[in-house]
Amino acid sequence: QVQLIESGGGTVQPGESLGLSCAVSARTSGSVTMGWFRQAPGKERELVAHVTWNFGRSYSRGYGDSVKGRFTISGDSAKETVSLQMNDLRPDDTAVYYCYIDSTLGRDWGQGIQVTVTS
């Protein structure tokens, strides 16, 4: 089991940008996927974006349909960190964002970080 340390988030107005970062507390090996889910009040948790490394080489990224073209995920396989750049934010992007990691140790989650988009 690893711990995930999230940072960033906050409150912005529609159309503005915000960044999130996530780092792991312990090194993993092999194929690793890190990314973000989000959950708004009264809604199910949904995938935002993910990046997968295979033995330290980044080879795939994926996005949820609602954020394609606005959000960009990037990662550092050596440090096992991911960052999420969120542009053109909308009120319906308001949610708690959870970092996660899938590794040989299983799936672990961060505690979540609030993103609020309001005018």
Quickly count the helices. 0
Shape: globular
Overall pLDDT: 92
Structural class: mainly beta
Please give the alpha-carbon distance between the first and last residues: 39 Å
Structure description:
The protein is an all-beta fold. 0% of the residues lie in helices and 59% in strands. The chain has strands at 4-8, 10-12, 18-24, 31-39, 46-54, 57-63, 71-76, 81-86, 95-103, 106-109, 113-117. The strands form 2 sheets. Strands 2, 4, 5, 6, 9, 10 and 11 form a 7-stranded mixed sheet that branches. It has a 4-stranded antiparallel sheet with strand order 1-3-8-7, with no helix packed on it.
Which characteristics define this entry?
119 residues, mainly beta, seven-stranded mixed β-sheet, four-stranded antiparallel β-sheet, 11 strands, globular
Give the helix/strand layout:
Blueprint (H helix, E strand, L loop, with lengths): L3 E5 L1 E3 L5 E7 L6 E9 L6 E9 L2 E7 L7 E6 L4 E6 L8 E9 L2 E4 L3 E5 L2
